[in-house]
Every structure is written in C-alpha cells, then in structure tokens.
Fold this sequence. Notes:
By secondary structure, the chain is α/β, with parallel strands linked by helices. The protein folds into 3 domains: about 1-95, no CATH class; about 120-385, Aspartate Aminotransferase, domain 2, CATH 3.40.640; about 390-500, Aspartate Aminotransferase, domain 1, CATH 3.90.1150. The protein is about 40% helix and about 10% strand. It has 14 helices and 11 strands. Strand 8 and strand 9 (about 425-430) form a beta hairpin. Helix 6 crosses helix 8 (about 210-220). The chain starts with about 30 loop residues before the first helix and ends with a helix. The relative contact order is 0.13. The structure holds pyridoxal-5'-phosphate.
Amino acid sequence: MPTPPKTGLQPHPPTVRPDSDGATGPLAVHPKVFRDELTAAAEWVADYLGRIAGRPVARPVPAAHRQALAAGDLPQEGQDLGTLLEFVDRAIAPYPTGNGHPAFFAWINSPPSPAGVIAELLATAVNATCGMGEHALMDLERGVVRDLASLAGMAPGTGGVLTSGGSMANLLCLGAARTWFLRGRGATDGAAYDRAHTRLTAYHSDQAHMSVAKAASVIGLPPWRLRAVPTTSQRHMDVEALRAMVDADRASGLLPFCVVSNLGSTASGAVDPIEAITAVCRDQGMWHHADGAWGGLGALVPELAPLYRGVADLDSLTVDPHKTLSVPVGCGAALVTDPARLRDAFSFRASYLDGDQDWPWLSDYTIELTRPGTRALTLWATLRQLGRSGATALLQQYQDLAHYLRRRIQGHPGLELCAGGPLPVVCFRLTADPDASRPNPQADLHAAVAARVQARGHAYLATVSHDGETVLRACVCNYLTTTDDVDTLVQEVLAAADHLRAR
Ligand SMILES: *Cc1c(COP(=O)(O)O)cnc(C)c1O
C-alpha cells in the first residue's frame, strides 16, 4: 500500500456512538432522535424553499399571534425536540418578511442562497467563534474578506472583518477613521484628545443611509457635526458643495476627518463620484469611507464599472453580502485598505486572551469577540457556488430586470418614472387621475396602493419620499425574480390604483 501523503489530515475513527445515548442531562439528546429531527428539518427546509413562490409573498401576523409570541411563556418542564419543527411550521414560517418570494421588491433583502442555507447548518455544528482562538473558520474568514475586496476592486492588501451587516460595518469604519485621524494629530489621550474630539466633523450626502448617523452618534459625534451635503438632481453628492462645507468648517475651527460616500443609495440607487470625493479627502487629510452596503460590488457589472473607478483608492468600504449576494442574513463586511488601521482602533489586550501577535485574532479588528463562524462559511459557500462570473451574472440579472421594469413603467400611460438608478432601484408614481372631477388624494394614494398590493400577497413593494412626495419604490435583489414577477408587480399596482380611485 502506498504511504498516504503527509497532509496533516489523518483519518479518525468515528467518535459518535450511534448505539448509545451516552451523555445525560437536560440538553442531551439520543443520537438517533437527533439524526431523525435533523433529517426532518432538512426535508422541511427543502420543501419550504421549494414551494415559496406558490404562497402569499407576506402575510400580516394576526394580532393575537403577535401577542402570544411576544409574551414569553417559558414552561416549567422542557419539551421534546420534535416540537421545534412543528412550532416553526405553524407559528413562524407562515409570517415571513416576504424576501424569500420572487415577487418581493420592497427592500434590499434577498432570499437565502442554497449554498448558504446548507453552510449555515454545517457551520453551526462546528460552532466556532470567529473572534478568538485558532481555527479553520477564522482563516477562512480572512480568505473570504480578500475575495470580497477583490470582487469590489479594492487595492491588494485590503483586509477587514465580516460583520452582522452594513450598519455594523459603517460603525467599524467610522471608528477606524476617528482613531486614524486622532493618531495622526498625536491626540490619542488626555487634553489633546478632548480638544480634538469636540471638533471632529464628518460628511455624508443627504441621501445617506441612517446607519451612518447612528454610527456617528455611537462614536460621539453630535448631529451638528455630521454634515449632510446636498445632492444633484441625479441624487449624488455635490462635490463642490462638499468642498465649500469642509473649507467653511475648517475656517470656523472644526476638524473635518471623514467623508462617507454612497455606492448605491438606499432610496434610489445613486452612486456618488468616488474619485472627486477622494480628491477632496486627500487635499484635506480626511478618510474616505464608501457605504456600498448594497452597491459595493457594482464594479463587476460592465455598465456600472465606469462609476466605480477609484474604488482601489478608498480608505474603507462597507459591503453587505446578505444583500446582493443572497448570503443568509447576518453577513456584512468592513473592508479597510490598510487593515492595520482597523486594528489600531479595536485591538485591546487582556491577559485571559493571548492571541498570536503575528497572526492577530479577528477580535483585534472589530467590536465583537465571540462571533458566528457561520458568516465565513455561508459567504464562502455562496461565493464558491457563484464563482466570479456567477457573481457578475447575478448583479447583471438585477440590472436587466430593473431596466425591464423601467420600460414597463415608461410604456404605460398610467405610470411615470421618478428617479432611480443606476443601481436596480425604480421609483415611480401613478400619473394624475384623468377624471379631474373625482377627488384624487394623490398624495396618500401611493401609500395606500403599496399597502393594498402588500395585503393581496401577489407582489410586495414599498414607498419612499421623493422630493417631498411619497412615491412607489421597487428594488430588484432576488435571484428568483423573473420578468413574470415584474409583470405581476405592475399589474398589481395598476389594479390597486383602479380599486382605490373607484371608491
Ligand atoms: C442596508 C444598508 C445599510 C445597513 O445595512 P444592514 O445590513 O441593514 O445593517 C447601510 N447602508 C446602505 C446604503 C444600505 O442599503
């Protein structure tokens, strides 16, 4: 027999004892029961996801059911494992947000990728914490962070961490920017820190996601020192206005330290001019963070790529794989061109956590310590399922469907396009009622139309404020969506409008 190659991986005898119930105690389960319940759960998952398109997109949770769920009623005695699946099937699964359904167009929430669903279960079994210790999932996280940075078009050497989502990634990047700026001034403690900190000022556009304001508030910036820069008619940051605001603030003694740009605004999918904003940042000694929670990978799409020139010169970028890549919820990423800056902000020593200084634990790069390894594996599995070309094709598919929806709107006399794009968000309104003698509360009509479409359950869209008017908003972020679903959406909107106007 040939000698097996020395891989360091040696076969192990099985350690499960299938014929014994071994451990005792309140959490122990007989191996056979565990196996049967896992199998039943796997079959339920395949069935649930397989039939999702045939069910209502969403269903409101009945008031009594909401109260019962929210009441908290832990019984004295524990229950069989079998009650879990029954509970999910009866009490949870019938009332989803709707994002699993192909006709869900409301928010930037995708269905879970098949690879991600399986990986979530597998990673949970390993149950590694991607904060401390040495284990394979932490190395895998380092690898997928590189993959993401490379897909985004960031500079080689970019690092970072996976986060619970875009909000947390924005917070980490603002925290890193603050530490970097104060260090640069030699103001890391004492009176110098206090003097500088009370003057720190950051900028974002008036289209920024509210998580930027939250992050600023958490790092101690009062609202008046987070400036909303006006946007152009295309909804992207007016860079001349930014420059003027920074100059004026500096003249009045403030310390501009960071600009947050949008790579895909939530309301309308606008992309800020990256290179021009970086130029202001370089002139002024500021950090350029881009919030690409849902548009951060746009450079992959040929029609969008020109707008993403300059990504490699960003200081940091937020990307949410749980949005456009359909990684199951709970996977964002903070990507930082010079990862040492993230470490400068978040590395704190403790005698009971003694990591390897040459190969630092990921807890040195984030606020969290014990963190799910599911993030790394679900992202890895989804990226492996896609490959580079699959990731590109997926984003292109969203673009194509949004273009199709825009054409449908433009081709219908009852509908009118407002704003939207270049990312796949479509904001639109109903044209004014031709019968002017009828009372036509157009202002409230769009909210009522969206509510009616949602309640009917065939499609789902949301509203957004556009120049002070509430209009309809559809965004495409679902690998299951087809032109048929877009047609259903248009039909549902028109039918709801007819119904409401006829009353
Ligand atoms: C969704 C979103 C966020 C927040 O991300 P979460 O994952 O929901 O925390 C931040 N910025 C933008 C532009 C977003 O679209």
